[in-house]
Amino acid sequence: MPVVTVQEVKTALAIDHSERDGEVADQVNRAIGTIEAYTGRKFGDAARTEYHAGGGPIIISAPPITTLTSVKDMVGGAQDVEVVSVDQSGIIWFQQYGQVFPEGLARYEVVYTGGDTEFPDDLKAATAALVQQGLSMPAGLSQLKEGDMQSVAEMNLQGVPGPIRAILDRYRILSV
Fold first, then answer.
1. What is the Cα–Cα distance from 37 to 93, expressed in whole angstroms?
2. Does some domain include residue 1?
3. 28, 32, 34, 26: which is closest to 156 by C-alpha?
4. How many distinct structural domains can be found in the chain?
5. In angstroms, how far apart are the furthest CA atoms of the chain?
6. Which residue range is the domain that position 30 belongs to?
7. Is-contact 104 97, C-beta < 8 A?
8. Does one domain contain both 101 and 52?
9. Preceding amide of 138 cis, omega within 30
10. What does DSSP assign to residue 109?
11. Strands of 79-80's sheet, edge to edge?
């Protein structure tokens, strides 16, 4: 199930016809992509595969973890790693070779099911506002590709009203 439906956005925007449903659906997908890129979070419980360098605990990108399928050390033939503990906030600890997660570029493959299953009402409102902004763009600008929207997020959402950024900042995961 999607984290926010086209019907929820149409209701929030008081759109009571179906003539632009395809365009609304495209804008919803772009808005969610922008929100995920800006916040550093993935929404919706889904199967995921990530690669991590090690050098400490593994911190996955889509907590909470519903199911941890496997952690493999890709150095020397993709060997299973013994996991000591899994924190639902997305931190995986294990002990191997007398160290915690030896370092190595993309050394560990983590396969899990996880992600925020709840999409809070304020993020639904931010999605609707981004969709409204997208629908009001001139025809040529509304044809932006998904990668273009990712670039918008990377530029601190220039052109997105401050109140929407304020909502998104509450969910933003900052890397240290």
1. 26
2. no
3. 34
4. 2
5. 63
6. 6-42+118-169
7. no
8. yes
9. no
10. E
11. 46-52, 108-114, 65-73, 79-80
Q: How far apart are CA 18 and CA 2, in angstroms?
A: 19
Of 49, 119, 70, 114, the closest CA to residue 88 belongs to 114
Q: Which two tokens stand for residue 77?
A: 């033939």
Q: What is the pLDDT of residues 21-69, one digit of tens each?
A: 999 999 999 999 888 888 877 788 889 999 988 777 888 888 888 888 9
Contacts of the segment 80-87: beta carbons below 8 A, 24+ positions apart: 81/108
**Sole residue written with tokens 């009001």:** 136
pTM for the whole thing? 0.65
**89 and 34 fall within a common domain:** no
Rounded-to-integer distance, Cα 20 and Cα 17, Å: 8
Buried b (16+ CB within 10 A) or exposed e, 104-120: eeebbbbebebbbeebe
